[in-house]
Amino acid sequence: MRHSLLNFTRSNSGLVILLVLAIPLSLLSPDFLTGANLLTVALQVSMIAITAIGMTFALITGGVDLSVGAVAALTGALAAGLATSGGLGTYPALFLAMAAAAGVGLLNAALIVWGRIPPFVATLATMAAARGLTLVYTQGRPISGLDAQFTFWASNLGPIPVPIFVLIFVLILTYIILNRSLFGNYIFAVGGGEETSRLAGISPSRVKFGVYTISALCAGLTGLLLTARLWSAQPNSGTGLELDAIAASVLGGASLLGGAGSVTGAVTGAFIVGVLSNGLNLLEVPSYNQQVIKGLVFIVAVLLDYLLKRRLK
Amino acid sequence: MKLNWSLFLQRFGLALVYVALAVALSLLSNRFLTLSNQVNIFRQATINGIVAVGMTLVILTAGIDLSVGSILALSAVVTADLLKQGVPVPFGVLVALALGALMGMVNGLIITRGKIPPFIATLGMLTVGRGLTLMYTQGKPFTGLPEAFRWLGTSSVMGIPMPIILAALVFAVTAIVLRRTRFGEYVYLIGDNPTAAHMAGINTRQIIVLVYMISGLCAALAGLILIARLDSAQPVIGSGYEFSAIAAVVVGGTSFSGGEGTLFGTLLGTLLIETLGNGLNLLNVSPLWEQVVKGVVIALALLFYQALNPSKK
Fold it and tell me: I need a labelling partner for A72 at 20 to 30 A (CA). Which of A221, A234, A288, B183 fits?
C-alpha cells in the first residue's frame, strides 16, 4: 500500500506538488480559488507552458535550449515590426517571424550537430546573438501600434483567453508528435543513448534538427503571444524564460540527462511555476523576494528529480 | 606536415587573430594605437579578465559557472553597504571575498553532493543570488564609497592603473598555481578523465568545490574593483558577466570537455574581445551590435577549435 502510494507520487510527482501548493494557497488567500484568478493563472501559464513543451523535446535528447527567451523576443519584435512599419499584413508578418524563429532553431542544431558544440554553449551563443539582433532591430525601444488582428491572439473568447486555446492546440499536436509518431520514438531513442539509436538505424543528427526547430517554434509562438498580450513588442521580453521553461519541464518529469520527459508533464510543471508566482503575489510577497524563492524552488525541483531517480534504481 | 600546421594554428592562431585585428583597427582609426586608448582597453578588460580566470579553472574541470555575475553583485552591494556604515575598509573587502567564496562553495557542494549538472546548479545560484541582491538593496544603488576603498579602482602606480596591477597579479598567481602545484595538476586531470582521477585516489569532490570557490572569489574581487571605479554598487551590476567571461575562456581555446586550456589563452581571449568592442566603438558602430558580434565570435571560435581538433568529441 505504502509502496503503491510512493509509485504514484513518483510517476505523478508534478500533480502532487501542484495539489500540495494549491491547498494551502486556497486556505491562505480567499482570492486564489476564484474563476477570475484561475483564468489569470492559466493565461500566464500558457506562455511558459508552450516554451516548456519545446524545451522538453530538447531535454529528452539530452540537450537543452537556452536561447528560448531571446528567440521569443526576436520573434515578437520581428512580427510587430513587420506588421506595423514593415507594412506587411499581420498574418504574413506572423508567418515570417515564425520562419525566423525556425531559422534560429536550425542554426542551433547546425552548431550542435555539425559544429559538435555542446548544446548549452551553442544555445548560449545564439541566445546572445538573438537578443542582440532584437536590440538592433528595435533600437532598444518597444514597437507598438499593433492592429486588432494581432492583439486578437491575447483577447478573450467568451471568458477564456485565446492563449489557452493555443496552448491546448500545441499540447495536442506535440503529444501526437512525441507519443504517436515514429519521430517521437526516435527522439526517445536518441535520448536513451545516441550510439544505440545509431545502431538501430536512426540518424541522431536529423532528430536533433527536428527537436531544436520545434523548441524554437514553441519559443517563437510564446513571443507572439507575449507581444499580442502587451499590445507591443518589448526588446527585453522573455528574459529569464529559459529558466522558467527548464524548471517547468524538470518539475514535469523531464530528465536533464535525457531519455525522459512528457509534454503533459511540461504543462503541469508550468502550472506549478505559475501557481507559485500567483500565490506569492496574492500573499503580497515583494517581487524581489519572489525571485529568491523561485530560484530555490528550481534547485529543489532538480535535486528532487535526482533523488527520486536514484531511489528508483 | 599537416599535423604540425594544425598544431601551429591551435597554439598561435589566437595571437595571429589578435595581431591582425590590431593592425586592421590601427589602419581604420588613428585613435586606436594611442597609449591612452590601449591603457583604456586593458583597464576595461580587467573586470572580465579576473572573472574569466575563475571561469577558466571551472571549465578546465568540464564544468561551468553561470552565477559569477550574481556573486559579483551580492558581494559588491553587501560590502558597499558595510563600508557606508563605516566598517574598516580591509574588513569590508574580506567580507566580500568570503561571501564570494561561500557562494562558490555552495555551488560546488550542490554539484558534487547533489550530483546536479554544473550549468543547472549555477543557473539556480544565478537567480537566487540576483534575487538576494535585489532584496538586500530593495532595488536602490549604494553610492559615495570611502576614498580609502576607491583606491582599489582609481589609484595608479607609476602610471599603471591599480585594476591592471591587480588583474596581472590574479593571472600570474593562478597561472603558477595551475602549472606548479599538485592542485593545478589535479584540475587538469579531473577535466581530462574524472574516473581516472578518482581511481588515482584524488579527492575529486574537494578539488571541484575548491575550483568553484576560486571562481566565486574571483567574481567578488572583480566586483570590488568595479564598484571602487564606479563609486556605486547597483543592484543589477554584473548581469550578463557570465557570458563575457565564458566568451573570453572559449575564445582563449579552453575546451568545454575539460582538461585542455591555458590561462594565457584566456588572457588573449579577454583582450581580443575587449579590443573588438573598443574597435566597434571607435568605428562608431552602434553599441546595440556588440552583443550580436560577441555571440558570433563565440560560435566562430568554438567551430574553429572543433575543426582543428576533430578527434575530440
Answer: A288
The pLDDT tens digits of the residues spanning B24-67 come to 999 998 899 899 999 999 998 999 999 999 999 999 999 999 99
Question: What is the pTM assigned to this prediction?
Answer: 0.85
Q: How many CB atoms lie within 10 A of CB B292?
A: 18
Is the Cβ pair B114, A306 closer than 8 Å? Answer: yes
**Cα(A93)–Cα(A78) distance, rounded to whole angstroms?**
8
Give the A:B interface size as CB pairs under 8 Å: 127
Q: Please state, in angstroms and as integers, the Cα–Cα distance from residue B120 to each residue in A135, A255, B52, B105, B295, following that order.
A: 27, 12, 19, 15, 21
B105 within some domain: yes
* Residues of chain B scoring pLDDT < 50: 1, 312-313
Mean pLDDT of chain A: 89
What are the cell numbers at A304?
528532487
If one counts the domains in chain A, the total is 1
Each residue of B71-113: pLDDT tens digit? 999 999 999 999 999 999 999 999 999 999 999 999 999 999 9
C-beta atoms of A127 and B295 within 8 A: yes
Scan residues 104-143 of B and list those with Cβ closer than 8 Å to A. Answer: 110, 114-117, 119-121, 123-132, 134-135, 138-139
Residue A30 belongs to a domain: no
CATH classification at residue A199: 1.10.3470
**How close, in Å, is residue A50 to chain B by CA atoms?**
21
Judge whether A96 and A133 are in contact, CB under 8 Å: no
Domain that holds residue A276: 40-312
| Chain A residues inside the 8 Å CB shell of B128 | 291-292, 295-296, 299
Q: Mutate which of A55, A65, A67, A124 to disrupt the B interface (most B C-beta within 10 Å)?
A: A124
